[in-house]
Amino acid sequence: MEYEITNPYSDELVNFLQIWISGQKEHFTPTITQNTFDFQDKNQLLPFFSTHAQGFIGKFGGREEGIYTVRNPERNGVFIFVIEGAFEVQN
């Protein structure tokens, strides 16, 4: 599966995020679990879609930590995308 992240507003302030998900399989229909986020619970990963893959979103403060455990590490991996700030991922 291939992912592409683009910003069509290179000279403008962006106050929204669109995530488009598509798949090659006929039965690919992601289930949206939540479509607006106010991030009252900071420093947590919040689920926002699930299908044969899962997507999470979160807002973290400086030097905060979070843990995500891959369900099947022999078959699955993790894709991390940071919108703003410095972020460190290990293991």
Structure description:
The protein has 91 residues and is mainly β. The protein has one domain (1-91). Helices cover 0% and strands 12% of the residues. The chain is built from no helices and 3 strands. The protein has strands at residues 31-32, 46-50, 54-57. The chain has a 3-stranded antiparallel beta sheet, with no helix packed on it. Strand 2 and strand 3 form a beta hairpin. The mean pLDDT is 77.
Spatial order of strands in the largest sheet: 1-2-3
Beta strands, count: 3
**Strand/helix succession:** EEE
Beta-strand content estimate? 5-15%
Number of domains: 1
The number of helical elements comes to 0
Poorly predicted ranges? none
C-alpha geometry: globular
